[in-house]
Please model this.
Amino acid sequence: MILVVAEHMGGKLAKATLEMVTAARDSGREGPITLLVLGQDVAGIASEAAAVADQVLVGDLPALAQYNPEVWAAAVAQIATEGEASTVLIGGSRSGREYAPRVAVKLDAPYLEDVIKLSAEGDALQAQRYTYLARVTETVQASGPVVVATVKPGGFAPAAAASAAGEQYDIELDLPTPRTEITGKNVEKTSRVALSEAEVIVTGGRGVGSPENFAQYVEGLADNIGAGVGATRAVVDAGWRPYAEQVGQTGKTVQPKAYIALGVSGAVQHLSGMGKSKNIIAINKDAEAPIFKVADYGIVGDVNLIVPALIAASKK
Amino acid sequence: MKILTLVRQVPDAEARVKVSGDRVDLDGTTLVIDGMDEYGVEEALRLREAGGVEEIVALAVGPKKVEDALRTALAMGVDRAIHIETDERFDAVSLSKIVAQIAGSEGSDLILLGGQEADWDSQALGAASAERLGWPQLTWTNELKVEGDTLTGRHDVDDGNEGFKVALPAVVTAQQGLNEPRYPTLPNIMKAKKKELRKDDVGSFGVQPAVEYLGAEIQTRARLNKMIDGKDPQAAAEQLLDLLRNEAKVLA
Model:
């Protein structure tokens, strides 16, 4: 089977799961597409998952209420072994890329990381992935009885529902006791659409001028057009915005339909997180800013003058 | 406590990356110690300054020139270095077999390394090494303290950040915000030349790569580069909205 570990948040199946199902269909690997849902009180998520998969395995346990890399790796490796999986697909989220290597080691399997394309080449699984801060596209290949891969968010189109809903099965898991104690968690909540799910993102850089301007212009425009809000590393380092909004090498990687960069210069580390967006729109008063080299639409001008006009005009 | 820091050598972030044939061509490119690994080295030094650290060893696996990155780590203050010289490219899961063997023979209690590699964009080595050693791992760490054999700190997760507490041994991956790495001073650079840089034979570890690299290319997406003059903010805003609605069709 092709084992796909479902990603979910807030009691709903994440878009990343549908993207992984497409990756599974593209991979040309043997066996039914099997979604594995791990968590507590996940019955609703499992039903959602059934619509896109051949079968759904549900681990609905109190021990899975809180994510832990060792627990997740043990669960996935156990199911992959019992089900003789040919392929294990895991989401390329921060947590996915944290426990997937453990799964690969447990299964003695090769690991293809953060892939954007998958295909079968004889017995081998071939993949494309980005390297060198997403400036280079590499083709890699691995073979073996089982191969583990993480799938880059936004790398595949979300799968449409299968012709018939897959069967759901409850599973039993033999889980280790987590050794890491969580001593307090800050969930960075946003009332806006999450960056990983947003079709349009408005991002502000240092060129916006101040935290007050950021709120007024970046958040103002985003709320006006129903977009997610992003920030550059410089803005996060300056304490204007929370880390959860950071886009780039050390933040999130996004690939929206439209990425609107306000007062963003376009450092390599930032481009590595958003350079694959379908449309890039830049407003910056520096005509030489590198962001314009990758922009589809650009305005050379003062963000503080143009964005208010944009907000007013987009209200009409 | 003994700390093992892992060090990679990568192109300077501002360097232009080029591809020749089907390989990334690093000829003439300025190479530096990976900034993320540098946070790990710095953190090891700070933990020692706080007390309780017996020795800090840096490990690098890669071609001859990787010595330079190890010399940088030594100049920052690491006690000694191990270089496993090879031109072979090991994927993280295979490489973790070497890391685990070295951690075992060195009696390491804590492995520090960067959260993501600036060349292969991989986040896997820390986790894979932790699994091989049977150790817990903390990734994307931006705050770290050691008291006795207990690690406490804070790290980023999918939807925010969390405080943690875990007993050593452990693997910790570092990131921006953990510290501000020091610059090696000239006297320390001179001293580093006399520090031990041991060469281990890659063959002695019995490790083969499990991932084959078939090719590399620089795919640039053709961009429209339509520029609008911003002198009249009102007109520029109207024109941009029109293009986004009717040409790009990304706004309603």
Residues 94 and 207 of chain B are 7 Å apart (CA to CA).
